[in-house]
């Protein structure tokens, strides 16, 4: 494991941490049971096969 030789300043630490963000999932419109719903792109095959049901 890497160990820093010097202490990192608070501003540098916060600037580094601010780059770690969760990305918003890309939603894709999909027709399920006659309704149009928005689902994440990576889950479209599961919704089409009926493995997942959209929330009401």
Automatic annotation (TrEMBL):
Q: For this protein, what is any one GO molecular function term?
A: structural constituent of ribosome
* Record field: compositional bias (Basic residues): 1-19
Give the signal peptide range: none
What is one GO biological process annotated to this record?
A: translation
A single Gene Ontology CC annotation of this entry is:
large ribosomal subunit
Q: Mind listing the UniProt keywords for this protein, alphabetically?
A: Ribonucleoprotein, Ribosomal protein
* Region of interest: Disordered: 1-20
What Pfam families does the annotation carry? Ribosomal_L32p (PF01783)
> Which family, according to the similarity comment?
Belongs to the bacterial ribosomal protein bL32 family.
NCBIfam families, per this entry?
Answer: rpmF_bact
- This protein is called what? Large ribosomal subunit protein bL32
